[in-house]
Design brief:
Elements lengths: L9 H9 L5 H19 L2 E4 L1 H21 L1 H5 L8 E5 L26 H9 L2 E6 L33 H8 L5 E6 L5 H7 L2 E4 L19 E6 L2 H11 L24 H6 L5 E5 L9 H16 L3 E5 L7 H16 L18 H13 L2 H14 L5 H23 L4 E5 L15 H5 L6 H5 L3 E10 L2 E9 L4 H14 L13 H4 L7 H10 L1
Helix pairs in contact: 2-3, 11-13, 11-14
The protein binds glutamine.
The site of glutamine has 13 residues, from loops.
Length: 528
Amino acid sequence: MTTDLTRHAGHDLARALRAGETTSREIAEAHLANAERDNRALNAWLVIDRDGALAMADAADARLAEARREGAAAVAALHPLHGLPVALKDLVSVAGGQCTAGSRILEGYRAPYDAHVTERLREAGAVFLGKTNMDEFAMGSSTEHSGYGPTSNPWALDRVPGGSSGGSAAAVAAFHAPFGIGTDTGGSIRQPAALCGVVGLKPTYGRVSRYGIVAFASSLDQIGPFARDTRDAAALLHAVAGRDERDSTSAPEPVPDALLHLPDDDEAATALRGTRLGLPREYFVAGMEPGVEARIREAVAALEAAGAIVEDVSLPHTDYGLATYYIVAPAEASANLARYDGIRYGPRLADGDGGVLATYLRTRGEGFGAEVKRRVMLGTYALSAGYYDAYYLKAQKVRTLIKGDFDAIFAQGFDALVAPTSPSVAFPLGARLEDPVAMYLSDACTLPVNVAGLAGLSMPCGLSEGLPVGLQFIGAPWSEARLFELARGYEALTADADWRTLEPTDLSAAVDPAAPTPAERLAGATAA
Ligand code: GLN
């Protein structure tokens, strides 16, 4: 172990913990110190719960000591996440804790119970460091739509980290936690993973229970892992996946043990031989940055050199993905967000004796940000009488066509598709705020996966303009273990690549206590 515990992968920390080389408390302290130091510059965390984290760490240390007394089998039975820090997106319910979903309308709200993933992580012995920043109700691709100020990208503080799970991605990239939880409705795990240079997976729809997660678009939302390598991301998925009676859309599909036993370097690289990968031509979208395309083509060449068979394929309905998504997601959001009425959750803004309608109008008018209001209006319109057939129903039909494109490819025996995650590297803060469609296009390569209910993984594949580029692997439903094996293979192939040694900005030097926070910069920019 080097002295800086935050530079290690979770699986290294797990080994050191069991070997008695460190403690969960030491690991938590080291990560909390980074998070507390950097947050002024990054705004990745909406709350850092030092006391709660240390109490969980002490409990994990006590449990490990007890397991040691019980014997080697008891130690071996501890989950790989035991005693290790996790960053939770602030839409995951943790009993008694805040859960803002990035919205002012949930300021001060306390979750009355644990989400399913929270329970599972507690059982695994994980340590919660706090809650991370996000676009309001997960609507966005930059974390700039947060009601609590934007998050910065740890690679370049004047750039976005992606979104909506930008806080978790930035926290993992900046060595605040080896593990992060996000949600992905149209790309919100994979796109920030790409822009921050970490691994992120959007599981198959139904793989992880959504119980206790603030809903955005219920037929698209999935919870998934962030980590700095594939083994850690797979272990985190393993901890949270599986059937839960409280979410009827969670599937009884077994959670593969293979997630905990990804192959080592040599075996992983060898396993690529003979793998059949499709390269969807529609994913090389107009306006894609040349540096991004170059990295993707190089990654494909490396996979081919390792013996993978890569074939050009076509997903002809890709172009309709964005339009379909922006009917289905706002429609479902408008229904899900109807519950924030000032009566049941969060602050209630009454208007003199204007009655209940005035309370609704003022609470929602002031509590929701502009992007959320835009979605609620779009969705309400698409669902209104006379328009339902023309928009929502039509979008659901197109959705079937998009899914059909993927089904046809997987029926031909392809192991996975390989594609870019994002057409650009991290863009400057503010660059897409005035143009919602430019912001929406950030997810052109990720949202078809949600529309079709598939699994998708993003991992780093080099840099362009000094910023991370993400490589996406897309798999058939329930193919997560296979996707992780492929990704592990690519990771092994590039283990010695020069870009692997590069890291985000050293924030210990960059954090100027006198400099404005991202929230203050935003306020200044809006005022100007
Ligand atoms: N950027 C997309 C949106 O704004 C996807 C967000 C997400 O996956 N939560 O809806």
